[in-house]
């Protein structure tokens, strides 16, 4: 069996501005085709509809698997995914990255 990283994209339908949620998932499969099929099946199984506290309908619709990458081996520090972003407000982006890192450091650590 081999490991793959799959990006699953979901559309959040709530009557407002279009939103998309991108998930990176580890998939174990015999080959690329099986990994793609497993990732798609996972996305389809995770579609859900519900009502908010204010009784507004929300639906998470699975869109597809736009990226699938084989992982040669699971090892400390391997790259699972990368994405190059272009930002109009570079300094604001850098500040938000630093703030998120601080937030991670301040969170309580889960007990294992």
Summarize this entry quickly.
The protein is an alpha+beta fold and 112 residues long.
Describe, in plain words, how this protein is organized in 3D.
It is built from two helices and four strands; from the N terminus they run E-E-H-E-E-H. It has helices at 32-45, 90-106, and strands spanning 2-13, 19-29, 48-51, 57-71.
List the strand order in the largest sheet.
Answer: 2-1-4-3
Helix/strand-derived category reads alpha+beta
SSE string: EEHEEH
Instruction: Give the DSSP E fraction (strand runs of 2 or more residues).
Output: 35-45%
Profile the largest sheet. Answer: 4 strands, antiparallel
Helix content: 25-40%
Low-confidence stretches: none
Instruction: Return the average pLDDT rounded to an integer.
Output: 90
Instruction: Count the DSSP helices.
Output: 2
Report the count of strand segments: 4
Write the layout of secondary structure elements.
Blueprint: E1 2-13, E2 19-29, H1 32-45, E3 48-51, E4 57-71, H2 90-106
Antiparallel strand pairs: 1-2, 1-4, 3-4
Question: Which tags fit this structure?
Answer:
112 residues; alpha+beta; four-stranded antiparallel beta sheet; 2 helices; 28% helix
């Amino acid at each position: 069996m081999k490991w793959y990283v799959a990006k699953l994209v979901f559309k959040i339908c709530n009557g407002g501005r279009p939103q998309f949620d991108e998930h990176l998932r580890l998939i174990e499969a015999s080959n690329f085709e099986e990994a793609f099929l497993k990732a798609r099946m996972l996305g389809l199984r995770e579609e859900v509809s519900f009502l908010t506290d204010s009784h507004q309908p929300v639906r998470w619709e699975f869109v597809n698997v736009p990226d699938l990458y084989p992982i040669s081996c699971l090892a400390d520090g391997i790259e699972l995914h990368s994405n190059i972003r272009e930002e109009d407000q570079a300094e604001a982006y850098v500040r938000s990255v630093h703030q998120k890192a601080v937030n991670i450091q301040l969170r309580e650590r889960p007990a294992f």
